[in-house]
Amino acid sequence: MFNFDPGQYRSDLEKNGFAHLKGVLTPEFVSHMKRFLAEALSEAEKESQDWKIEGKKRQFVFEFPSDEDADRFRSGMSRLTGIAIDDFTISERHLKVYDDRANPYPAPHKDRSASQYSIGLPVDLADRSTVCVFPDLEPGHNEEDHAVFLEDEDQGGIDALYASKQAIMLNEQIGDVVIFLGSTLFHERVRAAGTAVLYLKVNAAGIDPLGENIYAREDLSEAVAVAAE
Fold it and tell me: Contact, 125 vs 37, CB < 8 A?
């Protein structure tokens, strides 16, 4: 799954609240994400209508290629975030496909409280599509069980905010991983139209509001234990 140990970026994450791991994903895992995207789009029943946001994006619950791959992901991200293996909880695992009509510069937001870390794995990127983070813009944990958005009047206009020095464009590519404090930092994807990104949201508190924490499954724990023997 990983070309190198994600843990080597831990100091960057702790210092900045975000990190960009360039070229960390293996071609095999990238291929799996692309296949999953193609299958999800061709099988409408995989889509949760509850999570479809008209004019912005569609969302599909992601499945790892195997339980062993899911465990490799947890191990690598634990080393990166410092979250203990036994505490590592997925609160969301959605492949997000952005609408062709998506606003290129939407209001930045903070993720729900359960998204301590938001981990983005691009699958299909439109021209100049990127995550933009705002480390110095009203940092602080969102305690709500839903995302909170920055209002236009708070910064004198969203366009001006994106043009300011507060906006940090990560400019990630396929094969990269971006990670940031999802419920603490304002962030947003800009020029998102036509882009597909896998987002895995994790926390150390065992909070699983959508019932998507695969690490709570007994069958996964048993499969990983057998593979390790």
Answer: no
Q: How many other CB atoms are found less than 10 A from the CB of residue 121?
A: 24
**What percent of the chain is predicted at pLDDT more than 70?**
86
Q: What is the dihedral of CA 64, 28, 45, 144, to 10 degrees?
A: 50
Could you tell me which residues are beta bridge partners of residue 187? 109, 133
pLDDT for 131-164, tens place per residue? 999 999 999 999 999 999 997 655 568 989 999 9
**Which token pair is 192?**
């998102």
Tell how far CA 8 is from the center of its chain. Answer: 19
How does residue 55 score in pLDDT terms, banded at 50, 70 and 90?
very low
CA dihedral 151, 12, 173, 73 (to 10 degrees): -100
**CA atoms of 46 and 101, how far apart (whole Å):** 22
Query: Which of the 8 DSSP states describes residue 184?
Result: T
| DSSP type of residue 23 | T
Q: How many CA atoms lie within 13 A of 135 on its CB side?
A: 14
Model confidence band, residue 96 (pLDDT cutoffs 50, 70, 90): very high
Intra-chain end-to-end CA distance of the chain, in Å: 20
pLDDT score recorded for residue 180: 98
